[in-house]
Request: fold
Amino acid sequence: MLQEFLRNTKYSKTKAELAYEMICEAKKANIPFTHIVMDGFYGSNLWLLTLVEMEILINVADVVSDTRVYCEPPVYQIPTRKGTRERIPVHTQVVNTPFIRVDSIAKRIDKWR
Reply:
């Protein structure tokens, strides 16, 4: 449905959309490659990173130092309501593991550069 909408609608594609199309075209043309390397602009695009990961492609992306990461797959859940007077929770939260900032991981690794 989305692809049909995009075909029938004239709009300018984003750089991330163009990059993903290039990756898909390279795979379709059987161009041999083993890795995808992205700079910080593409590395901060969660949409693109998710699609590349779903394609089971190895990728290396430059990310901003305050990016939050999880060491194990996060489990999302809407929290339970604690009382009768507060609003009903509607936003999901990660319940099984805390996030870690990328820069704190880099500080803990010896000779990472």
Q: What stands out?
A: The mean pLDDT is 84. The chain has two domains: 1-63, 65-113. The radius of gyration is 19 Å.
